[in-house]
């Protein structure tokens, strides 16, 4: 097992394990999760031998269907196998019921906690020649705190009306490690550009997004911690520009001029909202990947859900999962096969002939998988 973060040792890993077999946990979940996870597996299996990687796969259970059958959404065995046997994993999607079901909570949220996956990394990139303004950014969303700690309370005020409150928790520890992640990602994107990867950016910039003009303590701590970390580590990150943008004007600029953003780092809630919004800039939720990253583990996960409206029709777009698979490899310390996968996907999109219906085409999931594999 690799058991190590890209942040600490991605380059050493790539060297040390250059002919390594990686064991990948596959967690399809519900709905179209079961249609797209095989795409990630197929692409890994199709990587040319020269990349020096081979793969073992282990199928793992989780999801609402599994909950309905067994009363458990995330079996202990799934977590144990991931922790003890796997180098990384791919997660499809799970359905969440619209009304509260006793005993059920989302397995991906639980997995993020149990595996210490404190960063949600969401690259959003347009294809050359696509209509609209070019986009090549990555949102680095803090994944463990902020309003999502779900410490809410509701009570009756003196005048008899209801009041609800939620705690927004920001810590120096979580802010610093997400800031570090953002700067490391900025450096590795720059290294890829320096090695010839096409990009609309010439230099790297980390934009800290916050609302510290109003929330001067909580968002103020987030902003100041990241700035302090940068100032203390200029020897390493000095080539990265640092910017900041208040979150409401961030939304405005994201839609007006997305091309100015490279790496955007934000607390949990703003990161969540900005990353779904950014997906709208590139045509379909079906093409936007993510990775849940910690110091010990990484799970690639398409941004979309279980899409019950298209389940079983064979038309779900596999690209979000295929890009998530590449992202997982990147964080495991294998940038070259990752770059190969990104290139094959970009070539499929740029040609624009073999596309699923969400992108205006009439091809099937399998047609797209086959076309991308052909281009590896
Ligand atoms: P969704 O992402 O499943 O679907 C939104 C729209 O995008 C639908 O019209 C769907 O057909 C389309 N779409 C999504 N992925 C696509 C793909 N790969 N190819 C083509 N079209 C695609 O979001 P929705 O409908 O709000 O939620 C459905 C279920 O998924 C709910 O139960 C929700 O709780 C769950 N969900 C799970 C997530 C996860 O597991 N991480 C994330 C978001 C939603
Ligand atoms: Mg979201």
Automatic annotation (TrEMBL):
<keyword id="KW-0560">Oxidoreductase</keyword>
<comment type="pathway">
    <text>Amino-acid biosynthesis; L-lysine biosynthesis via AAA pathway; L-alpha-aminoadipate from 2-oxoglutarate: step 4/5.</text>
</comment>
<dbReference type="GO" id="GO:0009085">
    <property type="term" value="P:lysine biosynthetic process"/>
</dbReference>
<dbReference type="GO" id="GO:0000287">
    <property type="term" value="F:magnesium ion binding"/>
</dbReference>
<dbReference type="GO" id="GO:0006099">
    <property type="term" value="P:tricarboxylic acid cycle"/>
</dbReference>
<dbReference type="GO" id="GO:0047046">
    <property type="term" value="F:homoisocitrate dehydrogenase activity"/>
</dbReference>
<keyword id="KW-0457">Lysine biosynthesis</keyword>
<keyword id="KW-0028">Amino-acid biosynthesis</keyword>
<dbReference type="GO" id="GO:0051287">
    <property type="term" value="F:NAD binding"/>
</dbReference>
<keyword id="KW-0597">Phosphoprotein</keyword>
<comment type="similarity">
    <text>Belongs to the isocitrate and isopropylmalate dehydrogenases family.</text>
</comment>
<dbReference type="GO" id="GO:0004449">
    <property type="term" value="F:isocitrate dehydrogenase (NAD+) activity"/>
</dbReference>
<dbReference type="Pfam" id="PF00180">
    <property type="entry name" value="Iso_dh"/>
</dbReference>
<dbReference type="GO" id="GO:0006102">
    <property type="term" value="P:isocitrate metabolic process"/>
</dbReference>
<dbReference type="InterPro" id="IPR024084">
    <property type="entry name" value="IsoPropMal-DH-like_dom"/>
</dbReference>
<dbReference type="InterPro" id="IPR019818">
    <property type="entry name" value="IsoCit/isopropylmalate_DH_CS"/>
</dbReference>
<keyword id="KW-0479">Metal-binding</keyword>
<keyword id="KW-0460">Magnesium</keyword>
<dbReference type="GO" id="GO:0005739">
    <property type="term" value="C:mitochondrion"/>
</dbReference>
<protein>
    <recommendedName>
        <fullName>homoisocitrate dehydrogenase</fullName>
        <ecNumber>1.1.1.87</ecNumber>
    </recommendedName>
</protein>
<keyword id="KW-0520">NAD</keyword>
<feature type="domain" description="Isopropylmalate dehydrogenase-like">
    <location>
        <begin position="23"/>
        <end position="372"/>
    </location>
</feature>
């Amino acid at each position: 097992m690799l058991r190590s973060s890209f942040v600490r040792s991605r380059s050493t890993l790539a060297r040390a394990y250059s002919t390594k077999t990686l064991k990948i946990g596959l967690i399809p979940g519900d709905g179209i999760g079961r249609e797209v996870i095989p795409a990630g597996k197929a692409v890994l299996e199709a990587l040319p031998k020269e990349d020096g990687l081979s793969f073992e796969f282990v199928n793992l259970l989780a999801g609402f269907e599994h909950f309905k059958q067994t009363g458990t959404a995330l079996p202990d065995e799934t977590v144990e196998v991931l922790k003890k046997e796997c180098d990384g994993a791919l997660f499809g999607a799970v359905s969440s019921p619209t009304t509260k079901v006793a005993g059920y909570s989302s397995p991906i949220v639980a997995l993020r906690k149990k595996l210490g996956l404190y960063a949600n990394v969401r690259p959003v990139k347009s294809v050359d020649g696509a209509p609209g303004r070019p986009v090549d950014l990555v949102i680095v969303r803090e994944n463990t705190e902020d309003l999502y700690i779900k410490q809410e309370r509701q009570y009756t005020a003196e005048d008899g009306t209801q009041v609800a409150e939620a705690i927004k928790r920001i810590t120096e520890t979580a802010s610093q490690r997400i800031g570090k992640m953002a700067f490391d990602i900025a450096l590795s994107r720059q290294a890829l550009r320096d090695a010839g990867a096409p990009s609309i950016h010439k230099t790297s910039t980390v934009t800290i997004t916050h609302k510290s003009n109003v929330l001067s303590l909580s968002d103020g701590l987030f902003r100041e911690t990241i700035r302090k970390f940068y100032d203390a580590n200029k020897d390493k990150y000095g080539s990265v520009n640092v910017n900041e943008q208040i979150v409401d004007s961030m939304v405005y600029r994201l839609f007006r001029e997305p091309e100015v953003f490279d790496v955007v780092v934000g607390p949990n809630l703003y990161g969540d909202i900005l990353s779904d919004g950014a997906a709208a800039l590139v045509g379909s939720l079906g093409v936007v990947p993510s990775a849940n990253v910690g110091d010990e583990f990484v799970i690639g996960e398409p941004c979309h859900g279980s899409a019950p409206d298209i389940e079983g029709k064979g038309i779900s777009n596999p690209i979000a999962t295929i890009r998530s698979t590449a992202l997982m490899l990147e964080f495991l310390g294998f940038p070259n096969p990752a770059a190969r996968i990104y290139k094959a996907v970009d070539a499929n999109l740029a040609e624009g002939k073999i596309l699923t219906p969400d992108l205006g085409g009439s091809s099937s999931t399998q047609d797209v998988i086959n076309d991308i594999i052909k281009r590896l």
